[in-house]
Amino acid sequence: MNEASGASVCALGFDVGERWVGIAIGNSISQQARPLKVLNREQQNFWSDLERLIREWRPDRLVVGDPLTLAGEIQAATRIARRFARQLQGRTGIPTAMTDERASSREAVRVFAEQRRQGQARRRDAELQDAYAASIILQRWLDAGMPDSPPPDVAHEHLDSPPTDA
C-alpha cells in the first residue's frame, strides 16, 4: 500500500536509545499513534523479537526518531538512531523514514504523568515510557503528512566520538 494511492498506511514508530527501543503503532486512517512495546537492544534475541513484531503488525512504513540537538545539530545519539534505521530497512526491506524527535522524551514524561493523574496508567506502566516517546515521534510523522525522509548515510556524518554499533 502506498500513501500516494490514498490506501491505508500502517506504520511502526521507533524511539531508539542506547539500551531501549520504544515502539509505537499508527495508521493513516485514524491519524493516531499509540504506544506498543519496549525492547532491550542488549538482549541477544532483540532482532528476532523485533522482526516477529514486524511480521505480526505488517507495517507499510517504519519511522525512526532523529535525535538532533535542540539547535538541530548531529550528536552521538543521532548516529546511533540513523544506523539503527538503516539496519532496520536493510533487514526488513520496508521503507524507513526518519523524523525529528526533539523533546519527544520530555513530552512522553508529561503525557505519562497526565495519564497517571487521570487513572489511565499505573506506575508499573512507566517501563513503557520509551514507547510513549515512540508514539509521539510517529504522531509527528503522521501529522506532517507522512514525509519520505530516508535515513542518511551515517558514514558521512562528522562527530567527535567514534561510531557505536547499534
UniProtKB/TrEMBL annotation:
One GO CC annotation: cytosol
SUPFAM superfamilies: Ribonuclease H-like
Cross-referenced Pfam families: RuvX
Name of the top EC class for this enzyme: hydrolase
GO molecular function: hydrolase activity, acting on ester bonds; nuclease activity
Subcellular location(s) of the protein: Cytoplasm
Residues covered by the YqgF/RNase H-like domain: 9-108
Region (Disordered) residue spans: 143-166
Coiled-coil regions, chain positions: none
GO BP annotations listed: rRNA 5'-end processing
Keyword annotations from UniProtKB, A to Z: Cytoplasm, Hydrolase, Nuclease, Ribosome biogenesis
Function (record text): Could be a nuclease involved in processing of the 5'-end of pre-16S rRNA.
Family per record: Belongs to the YqgF HJR family.
HAMAP family attached to this UniProt entry: Nuclease_YqgF
Record's protein name: Putative pre-16S rRNA nuclease
Name of the gene: ruvX
